[in-house]
Amino acid sequence: MINIILPVDFGEKTDQLVDGAVKFAKEVNGRICLIHVAPTDIGFAIGDMGYQYFPEVEENEIREELVLLNKINQRILAQNVECEHILKQGIAKDIILEYSDLKNASYIVMGSHGRSGIYDVFVGSLTKGLTKSSKIPVLVLPIHE
Q1: Is residue 69 a contact partner of residue 3, using CB atoms and an 8 Å limit?
Q2: Which Pfam family, just one, is annotated for this protein (predicted)?
Q3: What SS3 class is residue 125?
Q4: Which of 2, 12, 75, 97 is most buried, taking the most CB atoms under 10 A from its CB?
Q5: Which residues 6+ apart lie within 8 Å of 14 measured at CB?
């Protein structure tokens, strides 16, 4: 079976991305390996005392993101597509490429739009970075308003 890496960011266009990836997985008889990469600085804040780390903030955010990831996983499984999921923290490009190697993936599926605003700049650079560094095809699905 073909493994398809599907990074998600939980933005407003995630449902469109998942729908496109499910359609693609069905066409190629693939399994979706769903991944969310959380930043490593979730629990940090800048205040009067400089940088401060709040582990409870990080734990709560990770817990909430894992719930969202589980919901997407269940949605994919309900459409008769095999799916597994993982949440990791780190540098998104590196983590996604490592995961694609680990899963011996055939494709990475990305959306053309991420969350919104400044986040699009990073998503665009993530997609660009993946297409430059990946040993496997990166399929960019058009996500429109």
Answers
A1: no
A2: Usp
A3: helix
A4: 97
A5: 8, 72, 111
Other Cβ atoms within 10 Å of 110 Cβ, number: 24
The single residue listed with the structure tokens 């309900």 is 78
CA distances from 22 to 15, 19, 40 (A): 10, 5, 29
Cα 89 from chain centroid (whole Å): 11
Q: State the residue for tokens 């190697």.
A: 101
Q: Quick check: 4 and 105 in contact, CB under 8 A?
A: yes
